[in-house]
Amino acid sequence: SKRVHEQYSTTSLGSHHHHSPHHCVESLFLAVLTIVTMILNNVFKTTFFLAFTASLAAAQGDDPATPALEPLLLEPAEVWSAQLLPDVNLGSVEILRGNGVSMSPDGKTAVVTTVGATVYAFNPYSGQQKWVYQAPAIGSTSIARSHSTVTFHDDSWMVYSVVDDENSLTPTTRVIALDMDGNELWISESLDGVAMGDPVISSDGGLVFLTHNADEGTNGYFTILNANSTGAVWYSESSGEEVAFGPIGIYHNPTEGNYDPLIQGAPVSEGENNPNDFLMWSQTPKPEDVSIEDGFLYGFQLPRDFNGNTTDVAFFELGDFQRDFQSISPPVITNEGFSAYWGVTRSSFRVWDNKRFSRARTEAAGFERNDDFLGQAVWAAPALSNDGPEPIVFGGSASTEFVRMNFDFTQTSFVTTDSLIYSRAIVDGETRAVYYVEANGNLHQADVDTLADIWNFTVNFAVEGQMAITPRNDVVVVADTRGIIKGVQVAEIPVTDAPSDFPSDMPSMAPTGDDTPAPTAASVSTPAPTPSVAAVGDSTDSPVAPVSVPTGETTTEAPVSGGVASSYQQSMISIAALVASFAWWML
């Protein structure tokens, strides 16, 4: 190459020396050879770069912790609407407080519960109804109602609670488990009283936990069901006094139980180095209460070396003192199980910021009280921007306010709303916005820092139930009290993926410390579909099986960028070969 460079230099200086034809051809060949070398060098550099970027993109795309969210829309767009119609064979279609929408972890199914104990499943992108399930009555004159949404275990099954003869002197509760196609797995035996909130499921799928209040709502029970059989009662214990229990909050597989020793003076807490699921709930106001008293906190965690003996199991008081609040909603436990946020009575919130739950809260934040009842509790659990130690906290107060708090409540702000907020807020997966819906049906997308509206969407009727968002954060599903469900697009939907095939790559609403998917309840027997399940307009989604089944097809990994690199490489090598052939012919 040095010789070629010198030749070019001599020529460029306008040398008048004459060269023989053979010398000219030799020079031309060397020049062409240099060009070929440069082309091949470029081919290999480009191929390496494209292969590297392709592998990086593939790694990011497969990592659930780093989902690629599409840009938010400037204005929302209603993409579908579905009306639940009254049916003599189904319960009431009203969707009231405690009911609402739950999104399956894979984002393929939006499941809606009604006060009539009916469960409907929809494709969240098209609104196509997949199936409907009606809880069977326990007697010819019994009436089943529900104040629960469904709770999922992975993408394999779900549970919800129903109340039988709620307006009688002896109401009872049942928990019903369904698979992802709406087939009934089991129905628990009847439990005394009325269920509070949603049942929750252990990380391994083996146990279902719930609280329920008997004796006209004055006697709280904590019950555990065996999900690996027929929902049989595995453990149940009452407060033993006139103390009613609120809904349960759960944290799966914490670093350890965040509470002091249960036995005073013991050197080591039962929670130390105990990664079993941790549950927490509070005392809740009784139906006849006209003022709010102080209340106790309660917790539950299986022993660190649990051997399956239920005699070693019991719930416990968190601290031996009463707190200055009660609650009608569950706490949100976060930060590997070391922090908790709670909406409580008197329109206020509590935080334990990296502090043991058996001790006094870190801070309290109070807001405008409810005009009708000064002691009214916050209606729904707060929403957090992340599961770490310093989230932003959002929620509706017990009055007409939507509030924002930083992680330790040293900074609080609010905006005034036109009506109350019964539904839990939703924070965008990249904290680009927060969504909340008022009781008057006004759905807001708000700025996470200022709470200023980015846009409003009118649902056109009252909303009390929970709303949900797809894992890709592109469609919000909201239901009004009449039983009209709407899919509202809030972000661009990728055109390269079929909406029904979107992967589940976002965290669930309830924080969890377990990065490894919990095993499914493989030992739960799945009976044949019962007459109470009606498949409607089956979608393109195939049933989700608890265990992967080989398809008999060979999967070939071929990233798009890899194809580009291969095509580019072949083209450039062909050009180089053509140039080399020409040079050889000239020589």
Percentage of residues assigned to helices: 10-25%
What's the overall geometry? globular
Low-confidence stretches: 1-19, 43-65, 497-569
Structural class: alpha+beta
CA-atom Rg in angstroms: 31 Å
- How much of the sequence is in beta strands? 25-35%
- Could you give a short account of the major beta sheet? 6 strands, antiparallel
Q: Write down the overall mean pLDDT.
A: 82
Distance between the termini: 18 Å
Helix count equals 3
* Overall strand count: 36
Could you explain the architecture of this structure?
This protein is an alpha+beta fold. The chain has three helices and 36 strands. Strands 6, 7, 8, 9, 10 and 11 form a six-stranded antiparallel beta sheet that branches. A five-stranded antiparallel beta sheet has the order 2-3-4-5-36, with no helix packed on it. Strands 16, 17, 18, 19 and 20 form a five-stranded antiparallel beta sheet that branches. β12 and β13 form a beta hairpin. The relative contact order is 0.15. The model is unreliable at 1-19, 43-65 and 497-569 (pLDDT under 50).
Layout: helices, strands, pairs:
Blueprint (H helix, E strand, L loop, with lengths): L1 H11 L8 H42 L9 E12 L16 E4 L6 E4 L4 E5 L6 E6 L9 E2 L5 E3 L3 E8 L7 E8 L4 E4 L3 E2 L1 E8 L5 E8 L4 E8 L5 E7 L5 E2 L3 E3 L26 E7 L12 E5 L14 E2 L14 E3 L4 E6 L3 E5 L10 E4 L16 E2 L8 E4 L4 E5 L6 E5 L9 E2 L6 E4 L4 E5 L6 E6 L9 E2 L5 E5 L4 E8 L41 E3 L24 H27 L1
Antiparallel strand pairs: 1-35, 2-3, 3-4, 4-5, 5-36, 6-8, 7-8, 8-9, 9-10, 9-11, 12-13, 13-14, 14-15, 16-18, 17-18, 18-19, 19-20, 21-22, 22-23, 23-24, 25-26, 26-27, 27-28, 29-30, 30-31, 31-32, 33-34, 34-35
Helix pairs in contact: 2-3
